[in-house]
Design brief:
By secondary structure, the protein is α/β, with parallel strands linked by helices. The protein has 6 helices and 8 strands, in the order βββαβαββααβαβα. Helix content is 32%, strand content 22%.
Length: 226
């Protein structure tokens, strides 16, 4: 029995370019807690983590090897970062007597899945340049992160109860600063700020418990109003 048995779904895209070979992109990532239709909120982070379907899934293996459709809906289990988010949400919900019965959406500043060992930002820019030659570079980003007006319109239309943000230090720093500046006046944006003023990436919440406790305290107010 898995400790974190929540269902994670996403849509994977595969684009071929001569200079990089296949570029893989992860979009529409969702963590589902129960059968309810409600979307509780969303999480914005830096770039896709290690989540992937079970390695025994032959359809997924074919996709990675360039066979079949260039778009694939996948299902799997939470990676470490997702587990930290789940733990914080469940702890806050339990403390306020609430229950998570819907889902949350996950978005990233870059949707590119980087090869292991590669620099994420450098690889993103390489992919952006390569895919611009075939006019497919827009798939690497979320269009609503391109400007403050689009950003605000997107969040207002969703009407989420909370928006959790956390980023890897100095990764996509310009995008980070834009998102942070646009978010400061929004009442439902939550983040755990470290001693240097960074909005900490959820992966840190496992080893730096004070950061997780910080986000849980902020979440408590929202679960009390569920």
């Amino acid at each position: 029995m898995r400790k974190y048995n929540q269902k994670v779904t996403a849509v994977m895209h595969r684009v071929y370019c001569d200079s990089l070979g296949y570029v893989f992109v992860r979009k529409k990532t969702k963590i589902t807690f129960g059968p309810g239709e409600q979307t509780h909120g969303l999480v914005i982070m830096s770039n896709p983590g290690s989540f992937s379907p079970e390695s025994s899934n032959h359809v997924w293996m074919d996709f990675c090897n360039g066979t079949g459709s260039d778009e694939l809906e996948v299902e799997g289990h939470p990676d470490v970062t997702m587990q930290n988010i789940i733990q914080a949400l469940q702890s806050s919900a339990s403390a306020s007597g609430s229950m998570l019965n819907g889902s949350i959406d996950i978005y990233n500043l870059s949707a590119v899945v980087q090869p292991k060992g590669d620099d994420a930002e450098k690889y993103h820019h390489q992919a952006e340049l390569a895919l611009s030659c075939i006019q497919q570079q827009e798939i690497l980003n979320e269009h609503w992160m391109n400007g403050q007006s689009e950003f605000n319109s997107f969040l207002q239309a969703r009407n989420d109860q909370f928006v959790i943000m956390g980023f890897v230090k100095k990764l996509f720093l310009k995008k980070q600063r834009n998102i942070q500046n646009w978010s400061r006046s929004l009442p439902n944006v939550l983040y755990a700020e470290d001693k240097s003023g960074y909005w900490s990436h959820p992966r840190r919440w496992r080893t730096e418990l004070w950061l997780r406790e910080q986000i849980e305290m902020k979440l408590n107010n929202y679960f009390l109003n569920f």
